[in-house]
């Protein structure tokens, strides 16, 4: 047993040393064969309307509080409001509790939405499976969800990361592959339906079809929403100029739980992770509401309880693709020094329709007269990962800048999704899975050591028997 433990420790040391040193960045030589990047026809079974009069549709849930003991359940009834309540309990077909919600609708040009229900279900127990029922009579529908484990530094948890999804056949492949991954919550980095690619009434209809399209996942586990440019919905020619209207009407966020002033930026804690969602399309310069909120939220992060600090945004800070190159520079200039100071573990972004992962680097020392003018290796910096590859109709961003910058570790223009699997307070596994024209194929993966507990002075605080349990558990999968 001691020899096995020694071997595992050596393997771990070599793996972490390799990751810390890095190697030459890789630009994948994989050439994706052509596959339609057109939207699935509106009458396709992927968008099927549930049977029954006024049956609830477009069901989705998200976290409803700061610590994971509540969910917000949302759905649409197409014909009439119907009951805006949720029956729920811990036994199937036996509902002990009832929660009452609200109902609203809105118009967009001449399109009129269905009746949008939003219901907060709180006071839940951790690590418990709940069944819930919405609707009435024969048209009622039943679903379930599983609450996360209680906040704990060693709570294992598996997140999925999806961005720029849309509703094409590629999108369908991404969604099906994600469902097979076993992940428990989606971190969504913006650009949901791409309904803004349509005009007039079709804008609203494509929001409806997308809600039915993703329901096979969103009704059963939380999706943590961040907004992208395709959620802005700015259409002066239709006299529709209220930004993010459709998104905010349909996809609530628990922003009040983190004392945010706006639904587009907020934070949650889930298992052993503290997750911060930022808005790339809202003001973020000094003294703006988002800047002020983030300044305070970062001070609240307790790495003794939630060691994994994750940031979501839509526009990537580091990107070596010709598409949207340098668009994240203004946000980088404002927030990167905070990411380094607070030792953010990973920043996920979308927007660029390709996959890319960086090394730990920063560019915070340059000023107009002196300092490092280019990104440099920085052990305190996050890993930056772009996953804007969900499958939308705009197609892939296939033109990378050549030569590959030193900060870029791996990049490929393909469709896919990622998973981030936390094992304990010190280590997590990351995987990017290429769709490969219908087949799920793990393509890029690495072991990530935690920025807080991975440092030597923090590791010394762990007891020997605990270190042994970590090392023996690292290579479970």
Automatic annotation (TrEMBL):
<protein>
    <recommendedName>
        <fullName>Purple acid phosphatase</fullName>
        <ecNumber>3.1.3.2</ecNumber>
    </recommendedName>
</protein>
<keyword id="KW-0479">Metal-binding</keyword>
<dbReference type="InterPro" id="IPR041792">
    <property type="entry name" value="MPP_PAP"/>
</dbReference>
<dbReference type="Pfam" id="PF14008">
    <property type="entry name" value="Metallophos_C"/>
</dbReference>
<feature type="domain" description="Purple acid phosphatase N-terminal">
    <location>
        <begin position="56"/>
        <end position="147"/>
    </location>
</feature>
<comment type="similarity">
    <text>Belongs to the metallophosphoesterase superfamily. Purple acid phosphatase family.</text>
</comment>
<dbReference type="InterPro" id="IPR004843">
    <property type="entry name" value="Calcineurin-like_PHP"/>
</dbReference>
<dbReference type="GO" id="GO:0046872">
    <property type="term" value="F:metal ion binding"/>
</dbReference>
<dbReference type="Pfam" id="PF16656">
    <property type="entry name" value="Pur_ac_phosph_N"/>
</dbReference>
<keyword id="KW-0408">Iron</keyword>
<dbReference type="GO" id="GO:0003993">
    <property type="term" value="F:acid phosphatase activity"/>
</dbReference>
<dbReference type="InterPro" id="IPR015914">
    <property type="entry name" value="PAPs_N"/>
</dbReference>
<dbReference type="InterPro" id="IPR039331">
    <property type="entry name" value="PAPs-like"/>
</dbReference>
<keyword id="KW-0732">Signal</keyword>
<dbReference type="InterPro" id="IPR025733">
    <property type="entry name" value="PAPs_C"/>
</dbReference>
<dbReference type="Pfam" id="PF00149">
    <property type="entry name" value="Metallophos"/>
</dbReference>
<keyword id="KW-0378">Hydrolase</keyword>
<feature type="signal peptide">
    <location>
        <begin position="1"/>
        <end position="24"/>
    </location>
</feature>
<keyword id="KW-0862">Zinc</keyword>
<feature type="domain" description="Purple acid phosphatase C-terminal">
    <location>
        <begin position="381"/>
        <end position="439"/>
    </location>
</feature>
<dbReference type="InterPro" id="IPR029052">
    <property type="entry name" value="Metallo-depent_PP-like"/>
</dbReference>
<feature type="domain" description="Calcineurin-like phosphoesterase">
    <location>
        <begin position="158"/>
        <end position="355"/>
    </location>
</feature>
<dbReference type="InterPro" id="IPR008963">
    <property type="entry name" value="Purple_acid_Pase-like_N"/>
</dbReference>
<keyword id="KW-0325">Glycoprotein</keyword>
């Amino acid at each position: 047993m001691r020899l096995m433990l020694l071997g595992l420790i050596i393997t771990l040391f070599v793996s972490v040393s390799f990751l810390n040193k890095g190697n030459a960045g890789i630009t994948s030589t994989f050439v994706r064969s052509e596959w339609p990047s057109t939207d699935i026809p509106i009458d396709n079974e992927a968008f099927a309307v549930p049977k029954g009069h006024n049956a609830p549709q477009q069901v989705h849930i998200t976290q409803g509080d700061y610590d994971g003991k509540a969910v917000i359940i949302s759905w649409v009834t197409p014909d009439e409001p119907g009951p805006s309540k949720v029956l729920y309990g811990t036994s199937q077909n036996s509902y002990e509790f009832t929660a009452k919600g609200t109902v609203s609708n809105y118009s967009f040009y001449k399109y009129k939405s269905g009746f949008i229900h939003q219901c907060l279900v709180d006071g839940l127990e951790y690590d418990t499976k709940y069944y819930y029922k919405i609707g009435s009579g024969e048209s009622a529908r039943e679903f379930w969800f599983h609450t996360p484990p209680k906040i704990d530094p060693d709570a294992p948890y598996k997140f999925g990361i999806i961005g720029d999804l849309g509703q094409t056949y590629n999108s369908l492949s991404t969604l099906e592959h994600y469902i097979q991954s076993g992940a428990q919550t989606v971190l969504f980095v913006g650009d949901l339906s791409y309904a803004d690619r349509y005009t007039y009434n079709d804008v609203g209809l494509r929001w409806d079809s997308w809600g039915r399209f993703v329901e096979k996942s969103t009704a059963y586990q939380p999706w943590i929403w961040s907004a992208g440019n395709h959620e802005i919905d700015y259409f002066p020619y239709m006299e529709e100029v209220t930004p993010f209207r459709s998104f905010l009407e349909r996809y609530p966020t628990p922003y009040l739980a983190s004392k945010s002033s706006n639904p587009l930026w907020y934070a949650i804690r889930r298992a052993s992770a503290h997750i911060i969602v930022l808005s790339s399309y809202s003001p973020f310069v000094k003294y703006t509401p988002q800047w002020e909120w983030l300044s305070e939220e970062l001070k609240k992060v307790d790495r003794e309880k939630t060691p994994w600090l994750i940031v979501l945004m839509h526009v990537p800070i580091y990107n070596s693709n010709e598409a949207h190159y340098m668009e994240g520079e203004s946000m980088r200039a404002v927030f990167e020094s905070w990411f380094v100071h607070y030792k953010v573990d990973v920043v996920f972004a979308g927007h660029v329709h390709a996959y890319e992962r960086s090394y730990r680097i920063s560019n915070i020392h340059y000023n107009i007269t002196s300092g490092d003018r280019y990104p440099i290796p920085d052990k305190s910096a996050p890993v930056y990962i772009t996953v804007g590859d969900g499958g939308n109709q705009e197609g892939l961003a296939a033109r990378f800048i050549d030569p590959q910058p030193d900060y870029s570790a791996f990049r490929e223009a393909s469709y896919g999704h990622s998973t981030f699997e936390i094992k304990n307070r010190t280590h997590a596994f990351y995987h990017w899975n290429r769709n490969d024209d219908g087949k799920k194929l793990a393509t890029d993966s690495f072991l990530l050591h935690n920025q807080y507990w991975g440092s030597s002075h923090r590791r010394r605080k762990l007891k020997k028997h605990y270190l042994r349990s970590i090392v023996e558990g690292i290579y479970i999968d």
